[in-house]
Design goal:
4-stranded antiparallel β-sheet, Alpha-Beta Plaits, Arc Repressor Mutant, subunit A, 306 residues, 9 strands, alpha+beta, 13 helices, 5-stranded mixed β-sheet
Length: 306
Amino acid sequence: MYTLIKDKFKKGECHMLKNLRKLFPSIQVQQTYMPTNGDYHWYVTKEGSFIRIAKDDMTEKDKILLDTFLQPIKSALPIQTEQEKIWHERIFEHSSSKDLNISFRFIYFKIQKQDIDPSTFKDAIQDIFSREMPIIWFTQNEGIIIEEKNNEFIDYSQIIDVLMSDLYVNIKFYVGGLQENLAYVKKYYDSILRNAKIGMKYVKKSVFSYIDIVPFLLIDHLDDDIKTELAETVLQDFVHDEEMLKMIETFISCNLNISLTAKRLYLHRNSLQYRIDRFIEQTNIDIREFHHALTVYFALLSLQKL
């Protein structure tokens, strides 16, 4: 049995699942984790699929073996509310009503500390918002909050500090855009997941949106060879000059404002101006101009993501 599962696992998730079905007739594969009454063992694959197998189908030896190849979901997640079940059906079973007029958005969250009780996090969310906020969980520390419009949408940048201080954990939010057409809810859901995963890798802010991640979305799709070429072609002799690169990055982040950049770097304005002039002279790229600065910015991102 061990050799059989191991060989199939190496050939990919599809082959592994096909083999597991022969061994465990009760196995089910889902796109999300749906908390049940405790009669199942749950796993998540490297590809992000969720597997559940009836406990009666497995011996203790079977469980030890599967725990080796798959990531078990050890912590019980909150049982789905009726509203969460409705949203689950809308997303994964295409049960949206064309006549339903609703404004909503998805907020992807990731809790850096993995030993927090998901129920505690959910209770904190409900307390802050004073209304039910459906949550679709992926693992014990990440998922999507579904926010239906109620007068005004919530400003997550204003509540992030409260949540982190109350729960003693680090949390990041990717706030999706407003949607009003449930017919495309699955496409929107997939987009949120794809973009959030990239944003979580690159964006340093605790709360960010699509506008913040556009440059990273573009850079993330480039091959390493192209990133290297972009960095070396644009930055030229300064590609390994950490002091100069930090200065340029700060200058761009300060919206090309010399006074603000000098203040951030604790430099005299004349010293900063000299360094900017030096970069312009040697590269023939005028980073005081928007389009030139944008090109340099992408070169810096390419260098950082190699």
